Amino acid sequence: MDLTDASKPLLDEFQVVLFGPGYGESTLIHIGSNKWIIVDSCKSRSIAGSLPLPIEYLRAIEVDPAESVSLIIATHWHDDHIKGLAQIVDLCPNATVSCSIALSNEEFIHNVVRFESGSNVRGGSGAREIVGVLELMKGRIMKRVLSGTIVKSFEGSELAHNEDVIVTALSPSDKQVELFLNEIAQLGAAAGKTRYRASQGKNDTSVVLWISIGSLNLLLGADLEETSDPLTGWSVVLDSEGRSTGDKATIYKVPHHGSITGHSDQVWDKMIADDSIAILTPFNRGRKKLPSETDRTRLTSLSDNTFLSQCGTKAKKKLRDHTVEKTIRETVGKLTNIQNEPGIISIKGNLKSSIDEWDVKLINGACRLQNVV
Amino acid sequence: MPQTSESTKFEFNTKEDLSLQVNAIHSLVHDKFNLKFDNAGFTSLNLFNRDELVNLTNEPPIVDEYPNRFQDSVHAVLQHINIERKKVPSLIPLQEWEGYVTDIYEDKFLTSLIDITAKEDVATEEAEFDIEELSDSDKNLLKVGAVFRWIIGYERTPSGVKKRVSQVVFRRLPQWSQSSIRNADRKSKEIIKTIKWT
């Protein structure tokens, strides 16, 4: 990946960098004084043996992840969403590692280790990353979070801008955790059952994060979806004890790739500032590509500054023998190449400056969503 | 061609023995029947006794899962090869994928595909298959996370007729055994114990 446009923030500047799509999506945040937070992981699909993108980015701007990453947060458990997370944990030995309380559940850990142990499925068991993370955490501190948990706080006196930084989890709720664990129990990694590749269920344990750097607030929406149940979804976030009702976020990582299922009018109304920047990654797998045209229209109407991390650069069709191509057409119609290169959105600025003065860089195919609509 | 019943006896009392023997078995089958344990070998073997022969592919078998089953299968496999190879068509693969099912809806299933021919180790393509195209036994194995092989190639019948084929075959992965579950749980308990949870 070409990172020549990547630049290091000043000690008193914040920076938010969003990577995706690849295997997963990831957000990298500079909170000041060369202290960084990594949320989830993302790897390029095309380069075998490549580094996770947040690590690649940090190295490109000459930041040592081992010294500078203070916090790593895992919001997912399945390989397809967090490829490279174990590498990140390994390369950042000084970071606090945090995950949803659901992922510390004994039954969950038993299940994922069962999937991974002795798996000879090409492409992995589906649980390789999370088991890799857990193995690396031996002797290290792992912080479990639930809606309302303060994940980590940093004293302003330690930071060049002198502002306190607080990272708060606004989800998952007790009910979400319960639903997730019910689903995990159905995975069925038990004696006498035929092995298969572990798959991510419908109920993830999305950890929505509220990060305040002085008066600047970020809302990272993970993959949380809205539901009709007030004990799950965005209703929980709106009611979360961890949320200060008067504050609004100026940077919003839109949940679930901009899908209508992750949308909540109330969140935009009550939690997002009028003058804000919305960022998201596309989802190019499965039947439903996201964001759809309707999603794009809705998002551009909600914020003039909405950015998508990858807007073009469609993966090229693989070239194959004529006979193979003909048989593919006859069997499945077409193959979709899902090796799209991840793009990067970088937002950098001084806490005292206005949005207009912030430096927004769109790297490797990222664009303003209005340009796509 | 030598009779398989005269072939080397395989004795393995421990997991380590069994691991060592796997290579010997591969070499033996390769030498005696000129079958390579590359993609083509997998395909050819697959035609004889798919349930058991999965264990003899390039991929290392999970030896602690089914030692007795594996031991028994070796002779069965070799005998099958000897008896059946004359009357079963051979398959020359042009392209192979390993895939896993990511979604099932109505009459189709969606899959992620790892291109084995290109020696890839992660899924780089997606395809949608008709459920109706599966054999009845494979239909029973269809579930999200199920693993399969998709092979495109030429099949040559014993009478010499050559035809183009596309085969989707679901892998019969081994079951979790009591011992593998015990070992995994021992490992996970150790993990849980050694992490400093807060």
Order of helices and strands of chain B: HHHHEEEHEEHE
Overall geometry of chain B comes to: elongated
Helix content of chain B: 25-40%
Uncertain stretches of 5 or more adjacent residues of chain B: 1-21, 30-73, 79-86
Sheet having the most strands of chain A: 8 strands, mixed
The total of helices of chain B stands at 6
Q: What is the topology, as strand order, of the major beta sheet of chain A?
A: 6-5-4-3-2-1-15-16
Strand percentage of chain A: 25-35%
What structural category do the secondary elements of chain A indicate? Answer: alpha/beta
Percent helix of chain A: 10-25%
Described by the principal axes of the CA atoms, the overall outline of chain A is globular
Largest interface: which pair?
A-B, 62 and 61 residues
Mean pLDDT of chain A: 91
Number of strands of chain A: 17
- Low-confidence runs of at least 5 consecutive residues of chain A: none
- What is the radius of gyration of chain B? 19 Å
Rg of chain A, alpha carbons: 20 Å
Q: Which assembly state applies to the chains in this document?
A: heterodimer
> Strand percentage of chain B, roughly?
25-35%
First CA to last CA of chain A: what distance? 26 Å
Number of strands of chain B: 6
Reconstruct the topology from this structure.
The complex is a heterodimer of chains A (373) and B (198).
Chain A: E1 13-22, E2 24-32, E3 35-39, H1 53-60, H2 65-68, E4 69-74, H3 79-82, H4 85-91, E5 96-100, H5 106-116, H6 128-136, E6 141-145, E7 150-154, E8 165-169, H7 174-185, E9 209-213, E10 216-220, H8 233-239, E11 249-253, H9 265-270, E12 272-280, H10 293-302, E13 305-308, H11 322-332, E14 336-337, E15 343-350, E16 359-363, E17 367-368, H12 369-372
Parallel strand pairs in A: 3-4, 4-5, 5-6, 10-11, 11-12, 12-13
Antiparallel strand pairs in A: 1-2, 1-15, 2-3, 7-8, 8-9, 9-10, 13-17, 15-16
Helix pairs in contact in A: 4-6
Chain B: H1 15-33, H2 39-48, H3 50-53, H4 67-84, E1 90-105, E2 108-115, E3 125-130, H5 136-139, E4 147-156, E5 162-170, H6 178-194, E6 196-197
Antiparallel strand pairs in B: 1-2, 1-4, 2-3, 4-5
